[in-house]
């Protein structure tokens, strides 16, 4: 039986890189009849608006969300600015696709989660890597029991320090920025997705700061272990201090999943396509002209090809629009999963700071310190 699509009036809050990517995809979707853009920078708004065929452009997310045409929203502001537009959407009662995280503070994340659940809103969070075929295939093997009972998971994520430098330069408080919270959360989300149904009960971690510490009072890398209620162990390490010349412009990841009847290894280092050039190609979030060798495909949203974004962010956006317009299920992260991911990454950072394990759920004292 053919479904009748709901006609969508889409509000895009934030006209940065992600807002532009998702807006261009939405502009091509047959269910989207109206697009509004809220972007604080008028020059950026003037550039992005025509590219996404925006019907309305403003500097105020409040003004945009009040528009009668709006019946769904994408929250794509900088991470620390998510809460206010989310609250405005809750007040209007409209479904949302929220870029991770829900909030940068754990207490604010908990508050937002509570209000979304009380309002019974359809809200999901943009953990884009879930929409890549390799991770969907890995999830399916874990879901269907091909590995038996999963008992051990390992992940190792390496990132070019250009990403860390960009993040530390944009903050006035480096203590709020860490490789685990900002970037390690993607690997953690994939692995926790494959460990669905298991409850974490303890975290233990150590951090290193020999590169980013002297430069930005920041952290280079964190390695840790999460133990679950059934004895399952997840060992993870995350470094965003790879040299600028490291060929992966952004993310390079390896994962191993071991179970009682099988094992799964995933190489997501992007070493299968290597580009070497004489002139820089502007790869990644924060391109550097000295980089002439690149592991293609390490840019998490995907790749520009034939004039449009191809890859997981485009597929995630289409999937979410289909969810809202047609009521179709998606692989998107729930708001509960997003809050759990933030809690775990902050708990790992706190364990590394204290140099001792932490029990989960976090105590009130721990919650105050990680918030």
From TrEMBL:
Domain (GFO/IDH/MocA-like oxidoreductase) ranges: 136-264
Highest taxon of the lineage: Bacteria
InterPro entries attached to this UniProt entry: Gfo/Idh/MocA-like_OxRdtase_N, Gfo/Idh/MocA_Oxidoreductases, GFO_IDH_MocA-like_dom, NAD(P)-bd_dom_sf
GO MF terms, alphabetically ordered: nucleotide binding
One Pfam assignment: GFO_IDH_MocA
All copies of domain Gfo/Idh/MocA-like oxidoreductase N-terminal, residue ranges: 10-127
Stored SUPFAM superfamilies: Glyceraldehyde-3-phosphate dehydrogenase-like, C-terminal domain, NAD(P)-binding Rossmann-fold domains
Protein name listed in UniProt: Gfo/Idh/MocA family oxidoreductase
Organism: Pseudolabrys taiwanensis
Organism phylogeny: Bacteria, Pseudomonadati, Pseudomonadota, Alphaproteobacteria, Hyphomicrobiales
């Amino acid at each position: 039986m053919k479904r009748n699509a709901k006609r969508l009036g889409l509000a895009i809050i934030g006209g940065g890189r992600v807002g532009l990517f998702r807006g261009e995809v939405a502009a091509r979707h047959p269910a989207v009849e109206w697009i509004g853009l809220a972007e604080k920078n008028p020059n950026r708004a003037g550039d992005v608006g025509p590219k996404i065929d925006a019907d309305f452009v403003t500097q105020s997310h409040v003004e945009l969300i009040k528009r009668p045409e709006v019946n769904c929203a994408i929250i794509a502001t900088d991470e620390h600015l998510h809460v206010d537009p989310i609250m405005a959407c809750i007040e209007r009662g409209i479904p949302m696709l929220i870029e991770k995280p829900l909030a940068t503070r754990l207490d604010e994340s908990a508050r937002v989660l509570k209000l979304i659940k009380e309002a019974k809103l359809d809200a999901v969070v943009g953990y884009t890597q879930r929409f890549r075929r390799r991770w969907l295939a890995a999830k399916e093997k874990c879901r269907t029991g091909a590995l038996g009972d999963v008992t051990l998971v390992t992940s190792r994520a390496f990132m070019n320090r250009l990403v860390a430098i960009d993040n530390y330069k944009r903050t006035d408080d480096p203590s709020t920025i860490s490789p685990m919270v900002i970037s390690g959360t993607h690997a953690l989300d994939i692995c926790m997705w494959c460990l669905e149904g298991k409850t974490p009960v303890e975290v233990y971690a150590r951090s290193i700061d020999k590169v980013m510490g002297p430069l930005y009072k920041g952290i280079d890398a964190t390695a840790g272990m999460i133990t679950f209620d059934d004895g399952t162990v997840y060992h993870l390490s995350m470094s965003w201090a790879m040299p600028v010349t490291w060929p992966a412009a952004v993310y390079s990841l390896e994962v191993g999943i071991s179970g009682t009847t099988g094992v799964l290894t995933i190489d997501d280092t992007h070493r299968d396509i290597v580009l070497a050039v004489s002139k820089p190609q502007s790869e990644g979030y924060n391109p550097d002209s000295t980089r002439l060798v690149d592991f293609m495909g390490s840019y998490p949203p995907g790749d520009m090809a034939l004039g449009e974004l191809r890859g997981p962010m485009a597929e995630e956006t289409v999937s979410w629009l289909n969810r809202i317009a047609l009521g179709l299920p998606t692989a998107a992260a729930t708001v509960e999963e997003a809050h759990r991911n933030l809690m775990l990454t902050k708990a790992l950072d706190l364990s590394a700071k204290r140099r001792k394990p932490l029990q989960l759920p976090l105590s009130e004292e721990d919650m105050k310190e990680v918030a």
